[in-house]
Design brief:
about 250 residues, alpha/beta, Rossmann fold, OB fold (Dihydrolipoamide Acetyltransferase, E2P), five-stranded parallel sheet, 9 helices
């Protein structure tokens, strides 16, 4: 059985590959794809595998962007660290998922389900189900975020965000009116709520709006430093591992 893994965390991808190969010696992991852009390129140039294991949240966007661009002929088992509303959609549409951390028992269960439903995935209903999930995700990106400010609840429009910054356990929204709001969401949670076409997770501390970017410079150790049109508490640096995904995102 030929399998593709779409995962931007090398350790997680390698662990999943080891688990798959230990469960079934006939499994062949053809490729580990770390980004939306690289995945699209791969699927355009290669025949579909028997099965895809795909993380949801990648460095350059959500994996759903891949399946908008290509016409998947393979069933997909989604992997995610977030047990949110999307999970119910996958389950309702007979698309299995793995909740991280990935364990051998979970993988074995998913493979068993795949084999049982293989005939189901061979017809048009799979594509139709996936389309409904993608559509549901599209309409559920946050348009505004409620914040508490001076004993009032204020809706901050997502389009007005310059960046989101996390430091010392505090996550702050910074707006284009130069206002800061501390919020209760984690930066990981916010990443799943924002449209990846507009917002990019530059590093562990920053999510940025593409509209604030003025220019990009090379930095030490193949990193990038982003110059923006608003003040930031520290330099806005893209890590070496994310730099290529960031440049592709800028051009997309």
């Amino acid at each position: 059985m030929n399998i593709i893994i779409i995962e931007d965390e090398p350790r997680t991808a390698n662990d999943l590959q080891s688990i798959l190969e230990s469960i079934d010696s006939d499994i062949n992991v053809l490729e580990i794809l770390p980004s939306v852009v690289e995945s699209i390129e791969w699927f355009k140039e290669h025949p579909s595998p028997d099965l895809i294991f795909s993380d949801i949240q990648l460095g350059d966007g959500l994996s759903f962007e891949i399946f908008k661009e290509i016409d998947p002929q393979s069933p997909i088992i989604f992997c995610t660290a977030f047990d949110q509303y999307a999970i119910q959609a996958f389950e309702a549409n007979s698309i299995d998922y793995l909740l991280k951390p990935i364990e051998e028992q979970k993988v074995a269960r998913s493979l068993t389900k795949f084999r049982k439903l293989k005939q189901h995935y061979s017809n048009d209903s799979f594509k139709n189900n996936l389309d409904r999930v993608v559509e549901q995700m599209d309409i559920n990106y946050k348009q505004s975020i409620l914040v508490t400010y001076r004993d009032k609840m204020i809706p901050v429009k997502v389009k007005d965000l310059c960046f989101i910054y996390a430091s010392n356990g505090i996550v702050t929204l910074h707006t284009n009116s130069n206002q800061d709001y501390a919020i209760q969401y984690t930066i990981d949670q916010l990443q799943t709520m924002l449209n990846p076409a507009q917002f990019f997770r530059a590093n562990r501390q920053f999510i940025i709006n593409r509209d604030i970017i003025q220019n990009i410079e090379h930095y030490f150790n193949r990193r990038l430093i982003i110059k923006v049109n608003c003040p930031t508490p520290i330099k806005l640096i893209v890590s070496r591992l994310k730099s290529q995904d960031f440049l592709r995102w800028i051009e997309s």
